[in-house]
Fold this sequence. Notes:
Shape: globular
Number of strands: 15
Order of helices and strands: HHEEHEHEEEEEHEEEEEEHE
Distance between the termini: 36 Å
Strand content: 25-35%
Amino acid sequence: MKVLMENWRRYMKEEDGDEGDTSQCLEMVREVLKGNQYLSGYAETLQPENLIVVGDHIFLKFEDTFKHVKNSHSRESDLPGSKFADELMRDESLIGMVGTVLKDPEGPDEVKDGKLKWFNVEMKNDIGLDSLIKKDEIEGEPEMFDFREKIGNNRGIPFILKQGLTILDKEGNEIKSAEEADPEGEYWTKQDVPTINAPLQPTNKVNLIVGDIGEACGKKVISMVTMFPGASEPTADNKKDYAELGYVFLRPQS
């Protein structure tokens, strides 16, 4: 994190000769944010420390950037899914991992629908535990787990519905169209996930998906969509898709 921040400050100085909040580069990123329906709320309070420059990218880092990662992929979570090692559950460590992936000379594996995606990137050491296993590799029948996850930004509801996921309001009523949703309401996705009582397996693979927000200072401005450890299938957008591809989620029972 320290090295990345120093690189950013040096880049700002080289570009503008000024590290202040009114620098031309910072203002360019601010304008990019203003035009984004999901991130416009961050534009006015944008500070140099919110921008991490890595190669040809400017990664946006806010207080809640890794909220999903920490909620769903920490060892403390009992939800089905891969888990990062405890020592990596700090913003500095997660930013360092993002930087390592962004520096991959081969670039993203997929660029589609405004997203850059890196799959199954191998790190030097194990970074956590993988939760996926093929159904034909397990003994016994999997149990279905009612997986629910709160939607962080209701503007994403049309995209979630497009994926074929079920959306519920806080009373448990299903929302079948974006028009039924209250922009200020609370909603959850619901997926039936097959699980098996077995320990998760060590992995050195990481996957990163970021949103392409625009360009500033000759670099691509990107924001976090998700990052998780373990093997992945590029065609799978959610746990339902993994189940349809024949996977079961390891979920050890205490």
